[in-house]
Amino acid sequence: MVYVSERKSARGVYVYERKNTRGEVTSHQVKWRLAGEWQTEKFEGTDAQGAQLFADAVRENGGRWPAGWVRGEGFISVPPEMRFAAYALRRLELRTGIEERYRAAAIKELRRYILPTFGECDIRSSEHFNSDTIAAWVLKMQRTKVRRGREMRPMSPKTVRNLHGLLASILGDAVRAEPPLRERNPCALTRLPRADDHGIEEQDEDMTFCTPQEVEAIIGRLTRPADRHLAVVAYGTGLRWGEISALAVRHVLDLDGAKPRVQVARAWKRHPDATYYLGAPKSKASRRFVRISPSVVRAFRDAGVSPDRPASDLIFTNDHGERLPHSSFYERWRKAVKEAQEAGELASHKAPTPHDLRHSHAAALISAGHGLPYVQRRLGHESIDTTNRVYGHLLPEADDDAMATVESVLAGRRPVLRAVG
Question: Homologous superfamily of 80-205 in CATH?
Answer without folding.
Answer: Tyrosine recombinase, N-terminal domain (1.10.150.130)
